[in-house]
Amino acid sequence: MLSLEKVKSELEKYNYTYDNNILCGHTKSKIKWVLPAGIANVFAFEQATSYLFGFNAQGINLFPIQGDWNIADSLFIAWNDITNFKMKNGLLENEMQIETQSMKIEMKINKVVANNSWVKDNINCLKDRNYFYNE
User: Fold this and answer.
1) Number of domains in the chain
2) Tag placement on the chain: N or C end, fewer CB within 10 Å?
3) In the beta sheet, which residues pair with residue 55?
4) pTM of the model
């Protein structure tokens, strides 16, 4: 289960300091194919992967999640390497786009997670620090 205590304990394994700078989200789901089946259509979606995102003055850490919110790895992208960054505001989720010279990443950021008020608090904290907020 996702909890702030679980997040902090997982981040310690990567020597990452929690400072109200963590958000959670997932890959942007895409439709792989559509099969017309008479009255209804059958859709197949790509598997979404959950992530924790860490923002700080140096850049963004992407922590892919496996199992019961265990961090599987870490990818650091320095702000200097980012050529384009957008955070689009959505109703239930924000959409984050990160581009570098070698890749383009599109993710969904949860605005609310049940029983985890820290997610909304962290979004507001990161807006105040101007780590990702674009109007």
Assistant:
1) 1
2) C
3) 60
4) 0.81
Using one digit for the tens of pLDDT, what is the confidence trace for 46-85?
A: 556 889 999 999 999 999 998 888 999 999 999 999 999 9
- CATH number reported for the structural domain that contains residue 43 in this entry: 2.30.29.30
Range of the structural domain that residue 74 is part of: 4-129
SS (H, E, C) the chain: CCCHHHHHHHHHCCCCCCCCCEEEEEECCCEEEEEEECCEEEEEECCCCEEEEEECCCEEEEEEEECCCEECCCEEEEHHHEEEEEEECCCCEEEEEEEECCCEEEEEEECCCCCCCHHHHHHHHHHHHCCCCCC
The amino acid sitting at 58 is Q
